[in-house]
Structure to design on (784 residues):
């Protein structure tokens, strides 16, 4: 079964970002994948700041990512970029931590003016970590969330077709990866593949 | 048969950039794909500058791209980014011209200091055009070229394993796309696919 | 008298971008500066595409920029970045063409989603050309223009305080540069300046 | 007396980044400015991760920045960008925390391939915080550091003329700001300044 790690990078206890991550996990599980949401704000802060990848509570997440076929990162948009909390976790990973993985980057934010922040700031970071496929990123404005008793809930219909298209492309890429691994799919498709 | 358009964006008559594009076409053809190199400097300049997508000499390339499964763009690195000639052609295309396509971005340049230019400047552009999969970009320094009588030739061994890895991932993605189109591959892999 | 070159990078004959460049020239002249607008689309296209910096019609603009204290670049936002026409002109300049100059980058565009395009795509380019001071960039949406008989006119009040703040900072920086050149202003302010 | 805050963003106890920050403080003080180095790794980690700008140990630094004329940020290059620790501090500041300030961004790193990381990733962040003048950034490779007993020391001659040019431009901009504040310098230079 293909597996996906979903990380959220908001420092707030009650956040749209974390609510969206929960929603994404529920959808992935409904589609038959193994998925778990880790809110980075719940990891031990002293070890995060000191970049202790082997510390208890952090090492488990690092191992889970290593075993996953795909990674979803949901980050708030702060100061025209991904959050520092998101980056502080990426910093403690090995340089090639995303090798062979599909990645779906999602940003939340208050203003449409932030739509390009993720594409410009985040893609170079993810590709420096050797991501195989970073699918279309998606920006989810505050207006796509409903207020609930305890906090927020994404409004499924407001998310819009581009969100679901990005989501589907990600799922397809995760499955393709799983498939590649199991039946050497490439070789069958490309009989004359160049030997390098 | 899957088809690939290869564009080169150097303004120079004799250029490493164009030589690399020719080399890539030869490799793609040897692997059984249809591939053609269009040097953007040979398109009618007045129509390029005026963004006349329908002008003779330009309309054919636009149509060829629309029909292709994949796009390779080889650009020199000028002023810490892709060349203006490369961008002037992208500008006259429809906004979603890269939808469903695999894209391999390659930069040539004199200095290792330019390695990140493409990832930071180009990915957001390509994804704004709805590219399905922009694979790992690759930077090819001047030292990877041999001087020949008429100009330059890439040194196949100097290109290194990361170049061929990017190339292979691109070819795999082009084939996957062709496969998706022909047998509704996705549906068979993802039986419980969410209806959106 | 301090002098400023104003470049516009739209390929269209009738454009908001060019209208804004004209407006900026009028304001700079009213403030006592020498200023001229060059629409890049009027330069000889074959020489632009071939990067002939010495060609008639181009060499004069290159020389004018070399002599200027400041540069304003007004570009449309195409494919999430500056226009190819804008970049094709920058590409034919010397690498340090902006040394000691103040630069005001301005983008026009239809959607607020493009606000960050200029800051992310353009600043690295301008700084690679050794610009001394790239002031706050500004994004001017279509809604800030009035339709006129012949084309467009910026709506002075709709431009808003941030536009004028960017404009004022640019003018201040241009004057500071002129001042630095004439009275060795730095030395007088920093008596203990480190000798390097 | 003009004042400058120097922040370093390495998580390591012994770091080239912090050594460079110390060196910059010594130079600024020798030039007659007030300057202090704050290593972000020494701030309370739980409050950093939770973005508590008012927490003891953090509030003092926030206030010091608010009162400063200039800011130097020295960050290691991780995953093709500034460090997460650097960004986590910027995230807890007000959106316009850099208004009217001069900023000197400096990156340390192992490979020349990282030279452009700062210009592409960091400038948009700093300008979103309304920085008045972000001077030429500078990349300091590992080869510019000497090993000492306790750790590292920058090699003053290896830093090279571009480092000192960036440093001088920053100092000039800090002094200009102080000057602007004290004698309404602008008005005297620009008698016909447009009223906005």
């Amino acid at each position: 079964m293909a597996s996906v790690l979903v990380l959220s990078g908001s420092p707030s206890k009650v956040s749209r970002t974390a609510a969206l991550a929960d929603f994404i996990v529920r959808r992935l599980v409904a589609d038959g994948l193994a998925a778990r949401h880790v809110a980075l704000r719940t990891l031990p802060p002293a070890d995060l700041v000191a970049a202790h990848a082997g510390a208890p509570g952090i090492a488990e997440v690092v191992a889970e990512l290593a075993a996953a076929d795909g990674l979803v990162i949901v980050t708030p948009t702060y100061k025209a970029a991904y959050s520092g909390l998101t980056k502080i976790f990426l910093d403690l990973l090995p340089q090639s931590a995303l090798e062979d993985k599909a990645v779906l980057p999602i940003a939340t934010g208050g203003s449409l003016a932030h739509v390009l922040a993720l594409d410009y700031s985040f893609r170079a970071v993810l590709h420096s970590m050797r991501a195989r496929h970073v699918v279309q990123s998606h920006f989810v404005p505050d207006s796509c969330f409903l207020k609930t008793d305890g906090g927020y809930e994404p409004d499924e219909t407001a998310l819009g077709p581009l969100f679901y298209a990005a989501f589907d492309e990600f799922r397809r890429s995760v499955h393709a990866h799983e498939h590649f691994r199991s039946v050497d799919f490439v070789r069958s498709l490309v009989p004359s593949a160049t030997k390098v």
About this structure: The first helix of chain B runs from residue 16 to 30. Chain B touches chain D through eleven residues (CB under 8 Å).
